[in-house]
Design brief:
The protein has 176 residues and is α/β, with parallel strands linked by helices. Helices cover 50% and strands 19% of the residues.
């Protein structure tokens, strides 16, 4: 079959447009499925018994760290500006809501960079190494937050730096 040269450019334009729509749709659908699968996997974990190493090298369970308080485990890295924005927000949130524990889990970063960041920021977070957990559970992005109820049970997750969404999740969690 031969395409009339008068319609060739339109044919190519429509083909390109259709291809672009399919690529965008598939990408969005894949990202939604990945986030849904991630949350489903985490909802099946018993968080209170999961052990992390803190910055002093001590191995502690999340239950020991939170002490029966609601908590946010915030996965971050020194090279991520979005992580810095979330840390700033969580610091402000924690000032007005001291009952919420913030656990800052560093991911795939150099120990010296992490220690320099911690020393330069007056955050009241509990710092842990979260790299193994981040990799084992294949987080779909960074920064990422896991929210735990005061009984240590999983509440929900959030991927990204939309602090308005984080605030809404914390508000819902604290009122349930």
């Amino acid at each position: 079959m031969r395409i009339d040269p008068a319609y060739f450019n339109r044919f190519i334009a429509w083909t390109a447009l259709l291809t672009a729509v399919i690529i965008v749709y598939s990408t969005v659908r894949y990202n939604q499925k990945q986030a849904s699968d991630f949350e489903q996997t985490l909802s099946q974990l018993s968080f209170a018994d999961i052990r992390f190493q803190d910055m002093q090298g001590d191995s502690l369970t999340l239950g020991e760290m939170t002490g029966g308080r609601p908590a946010v485990i915030s996965f971050w890295s020194t090279w991520s500006e979005k992580s810095h924005q979330v840390n700033q927000f969580l610091q402000e949130y924690q000032k007005s809501h001291p009952e919420v524990m913030v656990i800052a889990a560093s991911v795939r970063d150099d120990d010296t960079l992490i220690r320099n960041y911690i020393e330069s920021q007056p955050f009241g977070f509990k710092y842990i190494d979260g790299t193994w957990f981040f990799q084992e559970h294949q987080f779909p992005g960074l920064p990422a937050q896991i929210f735990l109820r005061n009984d240590g049970a999983f509440y929900t997750t959030h991927i990204g730096n939309r602090t308005g969404n984080i605030d809404a999740i914390l508000s819902r969690m604290n009122h349930e």
